[in-house]
Amino acid sequence: MRITLLCIAIVSVNAVMLAACSTQSRTSEPLATPTALKETGLWALYDQSLKNARYIDLTHTLTPTIPVWKGFGPAKFGQSQNPENGNPYEYEKDGFEANRYELSTDQFGTQLDPPAHWAPEYPSIDELPATFAVRPLAVISIVERVAKDPGYHLQVSDIEKWESVHGVIPPGSVVMIHSGWSKGWPDPQLATRRPFPGVSLAALKFLHLQRHILFHGHEPLDTDTTPTLEGEAWLMHNGYTQAEGVANLDKVAETGCLVTIGFPKFKGGLGGYARYVAICPANWKYGVTINETADSPLPKNVKPLRWNSSIGVRERK
Predict the structure, then answer these.
(1) What angle do CA 165, 248, 136 make, to 5 degrees?
(2) The domain 111-283 is classified under which CATH number: 3.40.190.10, 2.10.77.10, 3.50.30.50, 3.40.50.300?
(3) Which residues of 231-265 are buried (b: 16+ CB within 10 A; e: fewer)?
(4) 72: number of Cβ within 10 Å
(5) 3 state SS of 115
(6) Euclidean distance between CA atoms 166 and 172, whole angstroms
(7) Rounded CA Rg of the chain
(8) Of 110, 104, 14, which is closest to residue 62 (Cα–Cα)?
(9) Domain edges within the chain
(10) Within 16-124, where are the H helices?
(11) Is the dihedral of CA 129, 130, 132, 136 positive or negative?
(12) Dihedral (CA of 222, 228, 234, 240) sign
């Protein structure tokens, strides 16, 4: 009896890896050849599209001084210490070093908000399904509107205008709103700047109830500037997720790209330190390709990492 299983695994932490696998019982015929797998499995997708695609990181680097809501307070980075003597581990003495992170919140940096952030009856970050891993990506720009009105919020009319050019937003997709707000990152004062661009409640309802998207994302650390954060409240209390603190949307095509979504799986987590990577067609003008990147082995740097206590992170000197 032959048993065959094909699967795809996607990891979005420092890169994207696609793998197809095949298993069978001991009494079955020999495993399929690589050629057969390419014809019937997902390796063909990698070879034909993903291998030559352009990859764009949509994620801010985490440091202790990035913008964060004042109600959470700052983070603190440090060196991991040996609990037996309280000394930090050292390359020369111990053969390795490690970091420790004192994070005041899981709402930090580029994020994926699960609905349990506001509504405990809905899923937490560890309860989100694996199907979030990769989706079609649409990018709607409101940069011109924000240049005239810094507090402008995406409207349904903006979505309809976008669709008149690009077609209807695919169901199950991720829609990122490009406002240009992230150009001020990583200035910590960015978190207190008012007004800031957002997404109107009407636009959120249209995207979810009419277009049935997976989630939307925006550059600021909040969805809107209403006194009750009505947009975020509606999303969370109706079982929807959202991305916040997204970067580099000016480098992504409005259509035709995919986005991979990765986040640590904290038990009962109410926020997600996320990594978003856009995968755009090979002929797109931004991003890097797999062939352009040394990834195995990774390149050796002439400047080794050293702990800088004055800024609370490791840096290359």
Answers:
(1) 50
(2) 3.50.30.50
(3) bbbbbbeeebbbbbbbbbbebbbbbebbbbbbbee
(4) 15
(5) helix
(6) 17
(7) 22
(8) 110
(9) 1-51, 76-98+291-316, 111-283
(10) 34-40, 43-45, 91-94
(11) negative
(12) positive
The DSSP call for residue 46 is I
- Cβ atoms of 2 and 28 closer than 8 Å: yes
Element (H, E) at 31: none
Residue 62 CB neighbour total at 10 angstroms? 16
Which amino acid is present at 89? Answer: Y
Task: Please name which of 162, 270, 277, 144 lies closest in space to residue 217, comparing C-alpha atoms.
Answer: 277
Give the total residue count for the chain: 317
Per-residue pLDDT of the chain in tens (317 residues, 90 and over written 9)? 433 333 333 334 343 333 333 333 334 445 556 666 556 689 999 999 999 999 999 999 999 999 999 999 889 999 999 999 999 999 999 999 999 999 999 999 999 999 999 999 999 999 999 999 999 999 999 999 999 999 999 999 999 999 999 999 999 999 999 999 999 999 999 999 999 999 999 999 999 999 999 999 999 999 999 999 999 999 999 999 999 999 999 999 999 999 999 999 999 999 999 999 999 999 999 999 999 999 999 999 999 999 999 999 999 98
